[in-house]
Amino acid sequence: MRTPDYREKMDAEIEGACILVIDDDRYLLSAIGQTLKLSGYQPELQGDGETALTKLRQGLSCSAVITDIRMPRMDGLELLAAIRQLDGELPVIMITGHGDVVMAVQAMRQGAYDFLEKPVDEDILLNSLRRAVEKRQLVLENRALQDRLSRRKESFFHGMVGSHPLMQQLYRSVEKVAVESDPVLIHGATGTGKELVARALHQLGRPGQPFVALNMAAVPGEIVEAELFGHVKGAFTGAEREREGKLGFAGDGTLFLDEICSLDLSLQGKLLRVLENLCYTPLGSNEERPFAARVVAASNRLLDGEIAAGTFREDLFYRLDVLSLHLPQLAERREDIPLLVEFFCQEYGRERGESISPFSPEIMADFLSYHWPGNVRELRNRVRRICVLGCDGITGEKRGDDQTLREFVAEQERQFIVNVLRQHRGRVGAVYEKLGLSRKGLYDKIKRYHIDLEQLRN
Fold first, then answer.
1. In this structure, are residues 225 and 239 in contact, taking their beta carbons and an 8 Å threshold?
2. pLDDT tens for each residue of 371-427
3. pTM higher than 0.90 for the full model?
4. CB 256 within 8 A of CB 198
5. Are residues 313 and 184 in the same domain?
6. What is the Cα–Cα distance from 310 to 295, expressed in whole angstroms?
7. Rounded CA gap, 204 and 386, in Å?
8. Is residue 414 helix, strand or coil?
9. What element of type H or E holds 187?
10. What is the distance between the alpha carbons of residues 215 and 23, in angstroms, rounded to a whole number?
11. Whole-number Å distance between alpha carbons of 48 and 54
C-alpha cells in the first residue's frame, strides 16, 4: 500500500513531467499542448515523427509520448517501433481517427500503452496520461534502485569496500591474478588492506586450502627462520619435538609474507632458494621437503629503495615481483569514505546488537577533508571511537605525547588551510594572499596535505 508521502512525491514528479506530442495537424497539436500546460505538464510539440525521433535520440528525457497514427513520411506505427528500440518502457499513447481501430489494435500489439479516438476527450486523455506517467516514474525508480544495488554490490569485494574506479580496477586485477600460480607482490601503505587482498587472492584461487600468514616485522629476528622453515627434534636448545613451519603448513594453499622488507638478508637468500627450487629443509634436518603453496608477499615500503640501500636482495625482488598489485591510499579515493563509514558503523552495530545512528554532516565533512595517513585502518579506528564515545570520540585524536611537534604543527596548519578554503568554497585565488602565501606555495601545501579542492567547492 502506498503511503500519503509517497503519493505526494509521485504527484510532485508528475507535475512538470515532459510529454512529447507528435501530430501533423497543427491545430490539434496546439490544442493538446495547451491542455497539457494547464494540467501542469511540460509539452514538447513536434509536427512529424522523424523530428521527434531525432529529439529522443539526442537525449530528450520525457515521461510519455502522445502521437497520431496517420502522419506523412513516418507514421505512428513506424515511430512506435523506433521508440520501442530506444526505450521499450517509454509509454506511447496513440491517437486514431474514426475507422482506424484495426490499426490501433495493431499498435497495442506492438507495445503502445493506450489508444484514443478522435475527437480526443480531454478528461480521458489526461487520465490515460496520468497512468502512463505514473508507470514511467515507477520504471525509472526501479531502474535507479537496480543501479544503486548494482553499484553497491560492486562496492564489496571479498572483505574490501570501495566503489572508486581505483578499487574497481584493483578488484578486476585480483580476479585475473588469483587464478595464476606465480608469486604476487602487493604494494601498499600501512592500513590500505594488504592482507585483505591476499585473502581475496586465496579465496578466488585456492579455496579450501590453508591460508598461512606470517608478519616478518612482528616476529623476533632470531625465531623467524624456525617459524618459516620449521625444525626437527633437537635442532637447537629447547627443540624438544618436531614442529612444522609455515612453508610446510601452507600445503597447497597460500603463504602470505607480510612486511617482506623486514626479512633479514641471510633469510632472504634461503627464501630465494625455496622459490627457485620449490623445496625447503627444516632446521636440523638434511631432508628436503616439497613446497607447493603460492607465495603472496606484501610491503609498505618501496622495495626499489630497500635494494638501493642494500637491505633487500634484488634477485629476490624479481623472483617475488612476477605479478604486482598496487593498493590506493584512502586520500586517493575519498569518495569511498561515506561507504566505509557506513560499513564500519554496521560492523560495530552487529557486534553490539544495536542500531548505530548516521554520523552528522559536520563529522562527515571533517572525514572527507582529513588526509588519513593511517588509511582505512585509521578510519575504522576513528569510526569505532565515535561509536563508543559519541562526540567525545572526535576530540580523542592523536595529541600531545602521542604526536611529535612536527606532526602537531602540520595537522594544525592543514586544518587552518582547509577551514579558510571552505569559507571561500575552495577558491585558491581568493585565499592565498590571506594566508600569506604565493599561489604556488598554497598549491604545494594543498598537494602535500592531500586537500580535496573539489570537495570544498561542492
1. no
2. 899 999 999 999 999 888 876 555 444 444 455 677 677 777 887 888 888 788 778
3. no
4. yes
5. yes
6. 23
7. 35
8. helix
9. strand 184-187
10. 74
11. 10
Residues in CB range of 442: below 8 A, 6 or more apart: 417, 428, 431, 432, 435
Whether 258 contacts 214, CB under 8 Å: yes
Q: On the CB side of 48, how many CA atoms lie within 13 Å of its CA?
A: 6
Provide the residue range defining the domain that includes 453.
398-458
Number of residues that this document lists for the chain: 458
Look up cell 598496487; give the residue: 326
Chain Cα centroid distance, residue 58 = 30
Tens digit of pLDDT for each residue in 231-273?
888 767 777 788 888 999 999 999 999 999 999 998 999 999 9
Phi, psi angle pair for 418, to nearest 5°: -60, -45
- Inside any domain, residue 152: no
Q: Which residue has the cell 520525457?
A: 62
Give the CATH number of the domain where residue 249 resides. Answer: 3.40.50.300
CA-to-CA distance for 454 and 372, rounded, in angstroms? Answer: 17
> Are 205 and 255 members of one domain?
yes
Position 155 in a domain:
no
pLDDT tens digits for range 50-75: 999 999 999 899 999 999 988 988 98
Verify that 380 and 458 share a domain, yes or no: no
Phi, psi of 258 (to 5 degrees): -85, 150
Return all residues near 67 (Cβ < 8 A) that are at least 6 apart: 20, 21, 22, 23, 49, 52, 76, 79, 80, 92, 93, 94, 95
* Structural contact between residues 186 and 212, judged by C-beta atoms closer than 8 angstroms: no
Please check whether residues 181 and 324 belong to one and the same domain.
yes
Please measure the distance between the N-terminal and C-terminal CA atoms of the chain and give it in whole angstroms. 38
Residue 89: pLDDT over 50: yes
Q: Is 154 within the bounds of a domain?
A: no
